[in-house]
Design brief:
single chain, alpha/beta, Rossmann fold, Helix Hairpins, six-stranded parallel β-sheet, 41% helix, globular, Dimethylallyltransferase, transferase, nucleotide-binding
Length: 372
Amino acid sequence: MKLLFLNPSHSPSPNLKSLCSFPPLFTPNNHHHPNGSSAHPRPPARWSPVASSSSSSAATRRRAKVVVIMGATGCGKSGLSIDLASVFPSEVINSDKMQVYRGLDITTNKITPAERRGVPHHLLGSFDPDDGEMSPSMFRSLGQSAISGIASRGNLPLLAGGSNSFIHALLVERFDPEVDVFGGLTSPASLELRYNCCFLWVDVSPPVLEEYLSKRVDDMLDMGMFEELARYYDPGRTDPGGRTGLRKAIGVPEFDCYFKKHPPQRWAGQGQGDARRPEEGREGDDDRAREGAYEEAVWEIKENTRQLAKRQIEKIEWLRECGWELRKLDATETFRLAMATDEGGGGGRRRDVWERQVVGPSVKIVKRFLQE
């Protein structure tokens, strides 16, 4: 149950078009992204990808404008980034610390190529997990390069993801990798921004979000998460120094414990995990034990996902209290509708609510931000 309320044509709906007075984004002279994917054309001359300011400081005047989409896991950040990219010429920078790695696309809930609708994405599945763990410092450097490239093409950088440590590392003027800013003992100077940022916070009522996240885990399992993790499982790996990188992704440690007790069968000569889930087995004692262990792993995944969402919200609230101007967008009603309607039903109504309560206000906010 991934909430990506996109119009099939990937064009703004009539009510969104009325919110934005920019000329049409697509012209015969479309620019192309260096990686070969089509990028949006340059934006109208009425706004610039770098900030203008009355300050006499050239550095202040030339700070790049960045839209930052924040929120707990599963709240629709990726969907909103694509919705905004249908209105403003944009490119997306992923700021989810598990989604930067290549592999485990279902487990890490990466937005699919089809769902991206041709919008260029950066730092999404581009880092080899065998090369080690991406640190906040590395993300800061790579993210800075991505922002510079996007701005140089006349496009708007959209930073979207739930890893607040990565977001902080990239955006602040002075970053100290030795300081845990979320430990509560940081100085105000460590939160000063080096970019001109517009913060959008997609928020969902905690009880509604918790119910949705539980259903999302079930949907991910139906999509093949168990089979994906069975193929990824390495019985010879011990992690003596602790888990790093992609092996920290929720789902990996929980099912590693399961696979140690019930190793996935191997297809002869192919080294692929058996796709048979435990509930499909026979009703012997071993099958009941296997199913019980499976249910325990699934419960732990759901609980750890709920705890992750709580920590993310706490960090976002702390950043807001420290002075970051986060504009909250309430997506609760959309999520209620998503869970109340049957599969395949009520999609149009959910999309209407999403556009009215989240996308529409976001477009207005970003439009004002770009015209400042």
